[in-house]
Amino acid sequence: MGAMRRPTMTDVAREVGVTAKTVSRVLNDGPVAVETRERVLAAVRKLGYQPNLMARNMRVGARDAAIGLVIPEMGNPFFGTVAGGVESAVRARGLTLIVGSSDEAAGLEQSLIATFLARRVSALMVVPAASSDHRHLRSERVAGLPIVFLDRPSAGLRADCVVSANREGSRTGVAHLIVHGHRRIGFVGDVPASLYTRRERLQGYRDALDGAGLPYDRALVETGHDVEAAARATMRLLSLADPPTALFAGNNLASMGAVVALSRAGRKDVAVVGFDDLPLAEALDPPLTVVAQDPAAVGAAAAEMVLRRLDGDRSRARRTTVPTRLIARGSGELPPR
Amino acid sequence: MGAMRRPTMTDVAREVGVTAKTVSRVLNDGPVAVETRERVLAAVRKLGYQPNLMARNMRVGARDAAIGLVIPEMGNPFFGTVAGGVESAVRARGLTLIVGSSDEAAGLEQSLIATFLARRVSALMVVPAASSDHRHLRSERVAGLPIVFLDRPSAGLRADCVVSANREGSRTGVAHLIVHGHRRIGFVGDVPASLYTRRERLQGYRDALDGAGLPYDRALVETGHDVEAAARATMRLLSLADPPTALFAGNNLASMGAVVALSRAGRKDVAVVGFDDLPLAEALDPPLTVVAQDPAAVGAAAAEMVLRRLDGDRSRARRTTVPTRLIARGSGELPPR
DNA sequence: TTGTATGCGTTATCAA
DNA sequence: TTGATAACGCATACAA
């Protein structure tokens, strides 16, 4: 039972009384007599023959018709949506998507990449883990393998990359709070501080302060790497002697932490702007004002970059920036109390 | 520039002055003289040789060391987390994960499955689209290909499947509302009504009513396929002549819709229990009581099923049910007004 | 311990 | 239009 051999091209050929190559021609629209073609197709149906893509890939290009994608976390809707954007763009070209999640660990990321390379994927797309380094990919790059980094640029490798307008978006969000009268604005960011997105967004925060002639107060910058930690960070800010009247949250987890902390403390008087939109933002009290990213667009842009490279574009590495959008819903428009 | 040929086993062999087979033995821990092994490994490093998994897979098992997974939507954190659970379980066995999203469309699902089969994946894991049919997979099943369905069982094919305790969880959630005094409880479900999860959860709702001797009122059952539609469905329920004092939401989108609608209407007096947990549930006002699923466990259980099948388990198809858990946070404990 | 011959399923080349 | 032969990169079987 089970494990009966699948029909191969040769089986089909024998059934019809031709050569495997003829069957191959039929399946690849080569020059074949009409009558032969029909007999072959009939045999294909009869035997339930399905071409073996593995063998085909190996023979034809020595490249797998697949794209390898590494993301830090599949359950995070931001990265999930990014992956979705990649997948639909890539599938339109007959490529399939192989994914792995690095858990934000450089080691896991490396081993995933190694597996993908061993499979001879046609291209590599990576959301780099916080502390990863990509020098080891240099030889692949010079060998012509398309490599695109998403959300965060690569360390140690000049390669294409698609990121959100982190600094600009952050600046806009903080400026929005300033326009509404706030002078002391707390920043709740993720860790490590070395993370690209964190750095850029903090820089945008400082840009906005500078633009308004406000001082940068190191005491107003706090950190948390998950929702609970961000909630604690928020509480620390609120219990300062001279507490902020508004908060800027540096990513979706930080936003959640801030919102949770304020809700627990029963504080509805603290203005909040979060970076990255949340599904229930509208249902919060007050509704959450955010700087929305467009993760699907990030994925799609990166996929298009890859496709261009696969089409032979050998121009130098490019950085694409996907714009963000301020969505005012209420929490960001609260006045300082 | 670029596109220089990758070194193969033969290249390494030539470099050392041995046969490809010897290199193969070194890489697969076969019997090789210590000194030979070292010279081979040196050449591997020198040439930057990386074994070609494609070729290896083809030779060794005629099976790709990959699992094909089809989910309806990558951006949905429920399915993303399911995929994450699958991936980590599967990676531990040296298998990689190939994913595609069907957009809940049977046609796309079929073509994804066809691609995976053509790649000769080692197993197939599918969250079936609402209206899909899997009779066409029968020959694969008898041929011994492990196939496991997740979240929803398959139509037309007896195969392994891992689902949440939909009916039981739903019953528990509704019973919770009843215990808190509610007699008229609205149901906000997803469409189509034929969807397995919707059917089961509605059945659990009816079980709870029956258990309490409450009548089933068709007018209290509404439907919405996304957040906005669910919000409208909620409003329809609230504007009934004899409106419900509590709502049970049949999935995460329905929960969001209900929460958003109540928030817009400024109603904090309607009790709500949602099926599936939400990230910000705690920060809502009142905090949202939910019947939490465990998507990572669903993914992991399905992956383990697949691994058992790959290990030769030929027992008959099994259905695994992953328990749910009621998390009382406030919205489900409101009394009827 | 190592090599030779052969095959996996497909396509390229060249000839018929 | 079709076929014979070789090749892709690797592993198995057997021999040396």
UniProtKB/TrEMBL annotation, chains A, B:
Q: Give the molecular function GO annotations.
A: DNA-binding transcription factor activity; transcription cis-regulatory region binding
Pfam families recorded for this chain? Answer: LacI, Peripla_BP_3
* Keyword field contains Transcription regulation: yes
In this protein, which residues make up the domain named HTH lacI-type? 7-60
Question: Which Gene3D superfamilies does the entry link to?
Answer: 3.40.50.2300, lambda repressor-like DNA-binding domains (1.10.260.40)
Which keywords label this protein?
Answer: DNA-binding, Transcription, Transcription regulation
Query: So which domain of life are we looking at?
Result: Bacteria
Give me the segments passing through the membrane: none
For this entry, the protein name equals LacI family transcriptional regulator
Look up and give the organism this protein is from. Nonomuraea terrae
Traced from the root, the source organism's taxonomic lineage reads: Bacteria, Bacillati, Actinomycetota, Actinomycetes, Streptosporangiales
